[in-house]
Amino acid sequence: MNQADFWKLIEKVNQACPSRDHESMEAQIIEQLIHHNVDDILDFHLIQQEYYHIAHRNELAAAGEVMGIKPTDDSFPAFLYWLISQGKSTYMAALQNPDSLADIPCERETPSFLGFGYVAYKAYSIKMSLLDPQDMSDIYGAISDRGYYSPAPETQKEIYQELPDRADIDPSYTLEIIRVLFPNLYDKHADQIEKTGLYWEQRNKLLQSDCVIHARIGLGLRPKELYFEGTPENIAHFLASYKIADSILLTDLTDHLVVYSSGWHILSCPDEELHQEINRSLYPIQRSEEELRPVFSVSDWISREELDTAIFDEPPQWGQIFQPGGLTG
């Protein structure tokens, strides 16, 4: 069996199971494999593992997290096996651009299919029991007896010739990076973003920050309030992301004015040094010399008493004002 036969077999099973029910798919592919010879079953396993290891990429881990997959030892492999089970076109498209996963319907089954990684193991055991009921060997022993643990050289060459040439992302990705790289996938799963570990990791980081901004944005009849970390760079990108807003009022958590603007045009900033630092980041964005990046923000906040306990060693005095780098007396 070569890689073309591998994908044809998966496509045949997908056509037989249009609902993509995992239990039915697993039973179907095991049934198909049993009708192949033992060498084909071993080849299927080795080819599957090759594609599995190829898909071990940071950007697919990021995409999986947005889709509700936890980056754990069990969950991410289950996601990759699910991806392979979707067929060649879906798999290759995801390697080329994980944002393509936004086009995959996942209403009936979660994008997690660990059992698909064991179909060759089960098929081999059934096949051997039919050929020789006394044979107690498993697929791993059979592969070891072969003396090699990857697809045949010609098959492996064909596998890598078909792969897209795409650099991976840094493992320290954030929700903002994911939103920029995979906008369609992010939007599709926006309602469950707050359930992800990435969201809570960034929210906890914001909670511990000593430089939190309370933003009140005037957008016609739909004003909104947000909280974000108030570095000068973040403030610049935040203003630019609401450049058509009627008004933006940024205060510190003691309600002292930090910035008042009309869209991305700053009308008032009491701290001139901060004003200059914001402009150093804002002007390149306005001149299209730098790309706008999303700023992580939350729409709700804990009580002032809880906030004082969480962020400050002691409650801040109401006379404190915002300075670049945090709140100072």
UniProtKB/TrEMBL annotation:
Residues 1-124 form the DUF4240 domain. This is DUF4240 domain-containing protein. The lineage of its organism: Bacteria, Bacillati, Bacillota, Clostridia, Eubacteriales.
